[in-house]
Design goal:
By secondary structure, the chain is mainly alpha-helical. It contains 6 helices and no strands.
């Protein structure tokens, strides 16, 4: 139940962020905006980590290969954020942009298949087809309303 609750709270937070990106921040340069919010994320994460730090080994910073992978993960997130925020800077609207992100599970599943060779089940594939259809319908609807 906890993962579902965490995901719902994250969804609400990201929804607010997306509306703010479209309505208030679309005119700002994506990199400038990323510096501001990444600074807040860094300060918040560091502060919360210090506040709740325990003897739990998951609080240890990665070393070696895991540190390198964590840096690569950060670069991937930075690149993804730049493209995501830039979509708003180039005239994208909240409905189209957020609906396209519905395809994240589809792309992630394809990447996972490429690495593990584990095929998705019929339910997952059905969901991917419905997600792709939803994106097409929303994009079409956004084009009509402009």
């Amino acid at each position: 139940m906890k993962p579902i609750l965490f995901t719902l709270v994250a969804t609400a937070c990201y929804s607010v962020c997306n509306v703010l990106l479209e309505l208030k921040f679309a005119k700002l340069n994506a990199l400038t905006l990323m510096i501001v919010y990444a600074s807040v994320i860094w300060i918040s994460a560091f502060g919360m980590r210090q506040l709740v730090k325990t003897d739990d080994p998951s609080f240890n910073f990665p070393t070696g290969t895991f540190l390198l992978l964590a840096v690569v993960l950060g670069l991937i997130y930075a690149m993804g954020d730049w493209f995501f925020v830039s979509a708003y800077n180039h005239g994208g609207d909240v409905i189209t942009i957020t609906c396209i992100t519905v395809l994240i599970p589809v792309v992630a599943s394809l990447l996972k298949f490429g690495i593990t060779k584990q095929l998705p089940n019929v339910w997952q594939v059905s969901g991917y087809v419905l997600a792709a259809g939803a994106v097409v319908l929303v994009a079409k609807g956004s084009m009509v309303s402009r």
